[in-house]
Design a protein that fits this description.
The complex is a heterodimer of chains A (249) and B (464). Chain A has helices spanning 200-208, 213-230, 235-248; strands spanning 2-6, 12-15, 20-27, 35-40, 45-52, 60-67, 72-79, 86-93, 98-107, 112-121, 127-136, 141-150, 158-167, 173-182, 188-195. Chain A has 249 residues and is an alpha/beta fold. Chain B has two domains: 9-297, no CATH class; 411-464, no CATH class. Chain B has 464 residues and is of the alpha/beta class. Chain B has helices at residues 9-13, 30-39, 44-59, 96-104, 107-113, 133-137, 145-151, 153-156, 170-178, 411-419, 424-435, 437-440, 445-459; strands at 117-122, 125-131, 141-144, 182-187, 197-202, 209-210, 213-218, 223-231, 239-241, 244-249, 254-262, 267-270, 272-277, 282-289, 294-297, 300-303, 309-318, 323-332, 338-347, 352-361, 369-378, 384-393, 399-407. Chain B contains 13 helices and 23 strands. Classes of the chains: A alpha/beta (249), B alpha/beta (464). The A-B interface holds A 152, 155, 165-170, 172-195, 197 and B 363, 376, 378-381, 383-408.
């Protein structure tokens, strides 16, 4: 059975096995807990959307996830605007635990965001896929550290982080740091970081269809956003997110 | 390097008596810096720079990132020692024990067979230097830097410690204060040297420090390949290598710098290597790091001219007790600059290898292209591999691709090789040599053979 939980003031949350739980956390300027701890019990499954709404200005926010053996989690971190601040997103995985993590930052004007995400694979056979996408316009700034830490106990784990960045203006600035720290030998681990570029052919095609370079950039950002919401499985929420993004663009 | 050279521990670990150390003192202070400058009969400007560097060294803290250096007792290092007076004009004039050391390392033989020129440094000073006459006639200068400071001040002074300023970090400042020996290489415009030039740096005495400085100027349209090798015996007390390499590659020039570092496992290897690459010029770094207990080495290319490019190729092997913290830095300043970084690391018996890299694309670097590829092999469950790439992207038109992976030796490869009659350690060594082949193939044959043998040596007693 699927249950949607709108998180309010809970500082610690534990999800038991059985339900397909969807956790929604909206961070607005009036309502935000600086720290929150989550535990996924053995074999539990959950999806989690963190939606940072426009206008939030907080110095430090920390979210900690502990996945017990066999637990599985999909996280969606969406940063629509950040006046400044540092986010700590920590994840700890026990045996056979699995995480798929998606992050999207759409920055514009003076937005400035620093994210320190860590994924500690402590358990044998743990699994992780981390995707980070960023689109920066105006004078926005991003520094994103995504550390995959494969501990000595995490033999036979399979981990990967992919980071992509698009600068949509001349004055936007981005830093990507996909760290890979491995202390076990029987593992698969990889990471990548790249910039998105529209090829000259793509740009020519779009312009031949009457799209200005600015419109092409927006289309690009919308395409990223659609990819992001694709896995959410919540039609209403997906529509709301796309609408919020469109309004910002 | 001699083709029949047998690479083994005793090759590097044998040492000669060091009577000259009786007059040497440990620790660094103003008196030592003044003594170094006086003995070398340096011009006043060099002494001033040394003293300024010493002041910065005293003020600067140890790096707060990377391997722990707090156990390195800088007061116990001997910063300057001369094993012989002057410089020999032929190998026959080099004291017999020192000549024997370089013979065993294969340097004189390589000089005869494959090199355009050679330099040999023993402790703090260069004991032998030569360049083939045909290159002298073309205006190439290949000298001990101590000599070049006095002989070619107009070439040395404008470049010395410009791309490697003493303010860069504590060990750059230390280097600026106590540097001694090294290489000065000047290739005139349009001159292309096919044979490599080589310098070999040997530390012999216990607790020694070596601070050679390599200054290379490659004028427009010139081409050359320069190789550095280094080693030291093992005593059980710390030694320190904090060399400096500065390379200036002018418009349309091409330069390759290769190094194979085999410092003893007592040594801290805290080396700094930087190049400035001008319009349409190309710089290549090819490096192998096998020795030392702690290495911190990140060759840097600064691409200042439109269309400049750099390749960084490196191998690091971290065995028991070793930390190989190596990587690459590329700073794209100008438009249409490109860089390619390929790094391979192997960790064994609890060794730790770290790739630490920086790629920075500046606001003016329109259409810059960057490719980074790092692969790590972990040979057992006690070893560690870290990859820490930083990508600072300040231009929307940059195309950057970074890819890294880590894992163990493929069991099927091992099984196949064992089925062909190889022992497990031999099979593992063969797989590791295949793993680093993209780097070794860029070295002259003699040197790639040496690197392969070093891998085999490190793989001895391996269980795969």
């Amino acid at each position: 059975m699927q249950s949607l939980i709108n998180l309010q003031t809970e500082k610690t949350i534990k999800i038991e096995a059985g339900d397909d739980t969807f956790l929604l956390e909206r961070i607005s300027k009036d309502d935000c807990l600086p720290e929150r701890d989550f535990t996924l019990a053995e074999n539990a499954h959950a999806r989690y959307l963190l939606l940072m709404e426009p206008g939030v200005s907080l110095e430090k926010i920390r979210r900690f996830w502990h996945l017990e053996a066999g637990a599985s989690l999909q996280t969606y971190y969406l940063f629509l605007e950040a006046k400044s601040g540092t986010w700590q997103l920590q994840h700890h995985l026990a045996d056979r635990a699995k995480i798929e993590s998606h992050s999207l930052f759409l920055g514009r004007e003076q937005d400035s965001l620093e994210v320190k995400a860590s994924y500690d694979f402590a358990g044998r056979g743990s699994f992780g896929r981390v995707q980070v996408d960023a689109w920066l316009d105006g004078d926005s700034r991003l520094r994103y550290d995504a550390d995959l830490n494969v501990l000595a106990t995490a033999q036979q784990s399979d981990t990967r982080v992919d980071m992509r960045l698009r600068l949509a203006s001349k004055s936007a600035r981005g830093q990507l740091i996909p760290g890979l720290n491995i202390a076990a030998n029987d593992v698969r681990a990889g990471h990548s970081a790249s910039t998105f570029q529209l090829s000259k052919e793509d740009l020519f095609y779009l312009r031949s269809r009457g799209l200005s370079p600015e419109a092409a950039q927006k289309l690009f950002a919308l395409s990223l956003s659609r990819n992001f919401v694709k896995g959410l499985g919540e039609a209403e929420l997906s529509a709301e997110i796309l609408s919020l993004i469109s309004a910002r663009l | 390097m001699a083709e029949d050279l047998k690479t083994n521990d005793s090759l590097w670990d044998e040492y000669n008596p060091s009577e000259y150390m009786r007059s040497a003192k440990s620790g660094v202070d103003e008196a030592l810096v003044r003594r170094i400058s006086l003995e070398k009969e340096e011009p006043e400007w060099m002494l001033s720079r040394r003293l300024a560097a010493l002041a910065i060294f005293k003020e600067m803290p140890l790096p707060t990132w990377g391997p722990d250096l707090s156990r390195l007792d800088l007061d116990k290092i001997t910063y300057y020692a001369k094993a012989m007076e002057g410089q020999a004009q032929s190998w026959e004039d080099v004291p017999i024990d020192i000549k024997n050391t370089f013979d065993k390392l294969g340097i004189p033989k390589a000089e005869q067979e494959v090199l355009a020129g050679v330099g040999a440094q023993y402790e703090s000073t260069v004991v032998y230097h030569s360049l083939k006459a045909e290159f002298k006639r073309q205006g190439v200068i290949f000298e001990d830097l101590d000599v070049a400071v006095k002989k070619y001040p107009e070439l040395v002074q404008p470049y010395f410690m410009k791309v490697m300023p003493v303010s860069l970090h504590k060990f750059a400042a230390l280097h600026g204060a106590v540097w001694s020996g090294g290489t000065f290489l000047y290739i005139p415009a349009g001159v292309k040297i096919k044979e490599p030039l080589q310098a070999y740096f040997r530390m012999n005495a216990k607790g020694m420090g070596q601070f050679e400085h390599t200054l290379i100027i490659v004028e427009s349209g010139a081409q050359a390949h320069y190789i550095e090798g280094c080693s030291a015996p093992r005593y059980g007390v710390d030694s320190l290598h904090a060399g400096g390499v500065e390379i200036y590659v002018k418009e349309g020039a091409r330069f390759r710098y290769s190094s194979v570092e085999s410092w003893s496992k007592d040594a801290y290897n805290l080396n700094t290597k930087r190049a400035i690459v001008e319009k349409k010029a190309h710089m290549e770094w090819v490096g192998g790091n096998f020795g030392s207990n702690t290495t911190m080495l990140y060759p840097c290319s600064i691409l200042v001219g439109e269309g400049a490019s750099a390749d960084h190729l490196g191998v690091a092997f971290a065995n028991q007790g070793q930390i190989q913290d190596t990587g690459a830095k590329v700073i794209h300043v100008a438009a249409r600059t490109t860089s390619n970084i390929v790094m391979k690391s192997i960790s064994k018996n609890g060794g730790k290898s770290v790739y630490r890299g920086l790629v920075e694309v500046g606001p003016g670097a329109e259409d810059a292209a960057v490719s980074v590829k790092c692969d790590a092999l972990l040979l057992d469950e006690f070893s560690i591999s870290d990859t820490i790439p930083v990508m600072k992207i300040n231009n929307a038109s940059a195309t950057i691709a970074h890819e890294a992976s880590a894992g163990k030796i493929n069991a099927e490869d091992l099984f196949y090789l064992r089925s062909r009659g190889l022992k497990e350690a031999e099979a593992a060594a063969m797989v590791v040599n295949g793993f680093i082949e993209p780097i070794t193939k860029e070295l002259p044959l003699e040197y790639s053979v040496e690197m392969n043998r070093m891998v085999e040596l490190e793989m001895e007693n391996s269980v795969g």
